[in-house]
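TA notes, week 10

Several of you asked for a full example with nothing omitted. So below is the full record: structure tokens for the whole chain, then the designed sequence directly under it. When grading your own attempts, check the secondary structure regions first.
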């Protein structure tokens, strides 16, 4: 089953790009159409600590944050594996919180393009992509979209924040308070 599926909302067509540009230098978030949620994720590498960070933020159709999380984990072999781990964590997080109609967005073009292929992914992180495809079958609506880093700033900053925690931090209807300015800047039109 391809991850870009619609079951209950057959008329829904996922947007090709879920961000707009107010000026050429700044790309901002466009909230998803109701009843969907936008699940943005990112992974970063902390080479000196031999750790990686994962950040996930889930927003509703008004752009309001429904949940966010940051997690520190051991550094895998490749940077692409960090992004693939972040995809899995984002999908599991949305599933745990029972968000069943989602647009998954990430800024790794390589990872997001692997979802377009019906064939199994044979890269070192292929098993993680296949896990996401399997998990996606439990959602009512699930689509994937590549976005630029500027449109993924909250998830990116959450991933970077993982360096300062011991394991996992979760916020419901908010983000870590030090990211409030980033969150608000993301929505300014």
């Amino acid at each position: 089953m391809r991850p870009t599926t619609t079951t209950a909302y057959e008329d829904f067509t996922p947007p090709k790009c879920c961000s707009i540009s107010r000026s050429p230098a700044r790309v901002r978030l466009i909230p998803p159409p109701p009843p969907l949620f936008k699940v943005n994720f990112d992974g970063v590498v902390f080479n000196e600590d031999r750790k990686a960070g994962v950040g996930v933020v889930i927003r509703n159709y008004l752009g309001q944050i429904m949940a966010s999380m940051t997690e520190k984990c051991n550094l895998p072999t490749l940077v692409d594996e960090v992004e693939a781990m972040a995809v899995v964590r984002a999908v599991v997080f949305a599933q745990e919180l029972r968000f069943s109609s989602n647009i998954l967005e990430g800024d790794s073009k390589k990872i997001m393009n692997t979802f377009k292929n019906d064939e199994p992914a044979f890269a070192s992180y292929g098993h993680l992509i296949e896990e996401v495809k399997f998990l996606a079958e439990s959602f009512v609506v699930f689509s994937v979209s590549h976005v630029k880093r500027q449109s993924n700033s909250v998830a990116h900053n959450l991933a970077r924040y993982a360096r300062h925690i011991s394991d996992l931090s979760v916020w419901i209807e908010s983000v870590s308070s030090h990211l409030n300015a980033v969150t608000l800047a993301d929505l300014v039109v």
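The CA atoms of residues 19 and 29 lie 5 Å apart. Use that as a sanity check on your answer.
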